[in-house]
Fold:
Amino acid sequence: MEPPHSVSFNPKGSMMSVMSNPTNIFWHESTVGKTERQNLINQQGCVVWITGLSGSGKSTLACSLNRELHSRGKLSYVLDGDNVRHGLNKNLGFSPEDRTENIRRVGEVAKLFADAGLICIASLISPYRKDRDACRAMLTDANFIEVFMNMSLEVCERRDPKGLYKLARAGKIKGFTGIDDPYEPPLNCEIMIEEKDGVCPTPCDMAGQVVSYLDENGFLHA
Ligand SMILES: Nc1ncnc2c1ncn2[C@@H]1O[C@H](COP(=O)(O)OS(=O)(=O)O)[C@@H](OP(=O)(O)O)[C@H]1O
Ligand SMILES: Nc1ncnc2c1ncn2[C@@H]1O[C@H](COP(=O)(O)OP(=O)(O)O)[C@@H](O)[C@H]1O
Structure:
């Protein structure tokens, strides 16, 4: 694994400073490498990054994909925006800065899971292109698989399972993605999920589309 830029700690363990060129800390290489871990579980670690509007079906796809991979004997783990915001990112809101930090942290965790050999499924709105691209840059390009839930705002708003669009339209939530905060669609995603003839693919079909990609690109074998 590549040594990243890092945080410096004093001998008592408290944080001293954050810097891009750390001093006095050293990368410690493990004696067991990624290839050995992957051979053990016969798969290639990667990140499947699912992006799209609230209500576009990110969590539904993440769950369905996770289940399908599990049934094929493949190890995967879901990092869902809503869930991660209950723990690791509970101190973050929805300002542009907080969203960027939310995505950065999840990107770093996803990178660790991929290094462990897992197929890490990250499902977050991740509305800003530069933040998603920064996560892509944390991995070798092929190991970051961006899945765009290309559902119209109309579809998402019609679904509105949590009633958040209604609140946003009523002005009771400020800065809601797609209403008064931007969503920047990917320019070069690996996979696009979209309606055909006005019909949305089923969760099973959406997962199938991603599994086919993983299979064709060698991720389901070491
Ligand atoms: N202002 C605003 N904008 C968008 N979404 C909001 C907002 N406030 C709360 N929520 C709820 O938070 C969920 C999105 O969290 P994420 O971590 O995926 O968002 S982000 O990637 O940091 O933009 C999102 O969940 P999903 O509907 O599953 O996408 C919403 O339920
Ligand atoms: N492919 C689909 N077909 C029909 N309904 C769907 C589909 N995917 C998601 N839904 C429904 O749309 C709503 C939002 O889905 P969800 O996965 O929670 O979206 P997100 O995680 O992007 O907010 C849920 O009620 C879900 O059951």
Remarks:
- The longest strand covers residues 144-150.
- Residues 52, 54-60, 159, 161, 200-203, 206 surround adenosine-5'-diphosphate (ligand 2) (CB under 6 Å).
